[in-house]
Design a protein that fits this description.
Layout lengths: L1 E2 L12 H12 L9 H20 L8 E4 L2 H12 L5 E5 L4 H10 L3 E5 L6 H11 L4 E7 L11 H11 L3 E4 L11 H4 L3 E5 L11 E5 L37 H17 L1 H19 L5 E4 L8 E6 L4 H10 L2 E2 L1 E3 L4 H7 L6 E5 L6 H11 L3
Parallel strand pairs: 1-11, 3-4, 3-5, 5-6, 6-7
Antiparallel strand pairs: 2-8, 7-8, 9-10, 10-13, 12-13
Length: 371
C-alpha cells in the first residue's frame, strides 16, 4: 500500500514502537500502585516519556507533560479549564471540530473567528491583533490546518497573546513532530497533540503540555496512587489530570516515537515530507480538472485538492482500489472548508510522513493521469 493518510494516523511506525508496546505488555503494570518491579518499570517509563517530551517541546519540567488519550482529550481539558459560559474567545477560521464542538458544548461562548486568506500569514496575524482585546478569555488556535497544511504564524499570534495578557491554547495535532513547537517561547497556557500522528506512537495516546502556573480542572476524577486518603483530586501535576489506570503500553510506544523524531530531527522530517507533497502538487497543478491548494512556502506535509469533474469520494475510492490510501470529505473541520469555500464538496487530501518517498508520489501521479 502507498499510504498518504498520515494526517489521520501514521501507519508506518519505527520498528521500535510496536516492539516497545509488546515488551511493556509483558513486563509492566501500573505506576504508583506498588513497590514491585513491574510497577517500578512502569513508573520509570512514564517519567522518561514525560522527560523526552518536555525536552522536545520546551516544557519547563516533566510533571507539566500530561499523558492523554488523544489531542481531543487534551483540548477538552484545556478549553474547559479556561472557558466558561458567557466568555468570549478568539479562534482561527481553520479549527478542527475538537475545538469548535467543545466550545459549543460549553454553551453561551462568543467566538470571534479570524478569517484570513489561505496561506496569508500576515493577514492572519493582523486579524488576531484586531480581534484580541480585554474581553477575550482565551485564544484557541491550530498550529497547522489538518485540511490544507497551512501553518499559521504562531510566533506572531503568541506574541499578541502575551502582549494582551490572554491565555493561549494551541492545537498542535498536525505540527507536533514536524514543526518546532515550544511552550516556553510561545508562553502558551496549554498545547495539545496526539501521539499517533507525527510522533509515530500508538492510537489512544496523546500529550497535554501545561505552561507554568496552569493547573486545569480534571475531566475525570478517581484513583491516582497518591494522597489516597484525600477525597479531592490532588492539586499538583501530573496526578491531577491522570485519574485511573494509565495507558503504560501506549506510552512505551509513544516514547519510542518521540525518540525517533528527536534522533531524526524535525528539519529532516519536514524536508522529506514537504518534498513528497511538492511532487504531488507540481504534478497536479497544471491539470484543468483539479483545483490544488498548495502552500507557496512549500513547507507542508498535507495537500488538499478539489477534483472539478469527479466527487472527491469517488476519486478516493479509485485510489483505494489501487492500494493508495488518501482521505476525502470535510476531515472533521467544516470551519476550515467554510473559510476557503469548499464546504459543499470537501476535498481530497494527501498527507505524508517520514516514511513516504517522491517515487510514491510519482506512482500516484501516473495512476491519476488515466482518470
Amino acid at each position: 500500500m502507498i499510504y498518504f493518510d498520515s494526517a489521520a494516523t501514521t501507519l508506518q511506525k519505527p520498528d521500535s514502537v510496536p516492539a516497545a508496546v509488546a515488551g511493556a505488555i509483558s513486563t509492566m503494570t501500573t505506576p504508583g500502585r506498588g513497590d514491585h518491579s513491574a510497577a517500578r518499570l512502569a513508573a520509570d517509563l512514564m517519567l522518561r516519556c514525560r522527560t523526552e517530551a518536555a525536552e522536545l517541546f520546551d516544557v519547563s519540567q516533566p510533571d507539566n507533560v500530561i499523558l492523554t488519550t488523544s489531542a481531543t482529550h487534551g483540548l477538552n481539558t484545556a478549553i474547559r479549564s479556561l472557558v466558561s459560559p458567557g466568555d468570549t474567545v478568539v479562534i482561527s477560521g481553520y479549527e478542527h471540530n475538537a475545538v469548535t464542538r467543545t466550545l459549543l458544548a460549553i454553551g453561551g461562548v462568543s467566538c470571534r473567528i479570524v478569517n484570513a486568506g489561505l496561506f496569508n500569514r500576515e493577514q492572519m496575524a493582523e486579524g488576531f491583533r484586531r480581534a484580541v482585546d480585554g474581553q477575550v478569555k482565551a485564544v484557541i488556535c491550530t498550529h497547522t490546518s489538518n485540511v490544507f497544511g497551512y501553518t499559521l504564524p504562531m510566533d506572531g499570534i503568541a506574541g499578541i497573546c502575551r502582549e494582551k495578557g490572554v491565555p493561549l491554547i494551541v492545537d498542535a495535532s498536525q505540527s507536533a513532530g514536524i514543526h518546532p513547537v515550544s511552550v516556553k517561547s510561545w508562553g502558551a497556557a496549554y498545547i495539545a497533540m496526539p501521539g499517533h500522528k507525527g510522533l509515530y506512537g500508538p492510537q489512544g495516546t496523546g500529550l497535554l503540555l501545561c505552561g507554568d502556573g496552569f493547573i486545569p480542572a480534571p475531566l475525570m476524577t478517581g484513583g491516582t496512587g497518591s494522597l489516597s486518603r484525600q477525597q479531592e483530586m490532588p492539586d499538583f501535576l501530573p496526578d491531577r489530570l491522570e485519574a485511573g489506570t494509565q495507558n503504560v503500553h501506549g506510552a512505551a510506544g509513544l516514547l519510542e516515537g518521540i525518540l525517533f523524531v528527536r534522533s531524526t530531527g524535525l528539519e529532516k522530517i519536514r524536508h522529506k515530507e514537504s518534498e513528497v507533497i511538492r511532487a504531488l502538487s507540481e504534478g497536479l497543478r497544471d491539470r484543468e480538472d483539479f483545483r490544488v491548494f498548495s502552500d507557496p512556502q512549500g513547507e507542508s506535509s498535507v495537500l488538499s485538492i478539489l477534483p472539478l469533474r469527479t466527487p472527491p469520494e469517488t476519486l478516493a475510492g479509485r485510489l483505494a482500489e489501487q492500494e493508495v490510501a488518501v482521505r476525502a470529505g470535510l476531515h472533521c473541520a467544516p470551519l476550515a472548508h467554510r473559510t476557503v469555500g469548499t464546504e459543499e464538496t470537501g476535498t481530497l487530501r494527501f498527507s505524508a510522513s517520514a516514511f513516504n518517498t517522491p517515487e510514491e508520489a510519482e506512482t500516484v501521479l501516473r495512476m491519476m493521469k488515466k482518470w
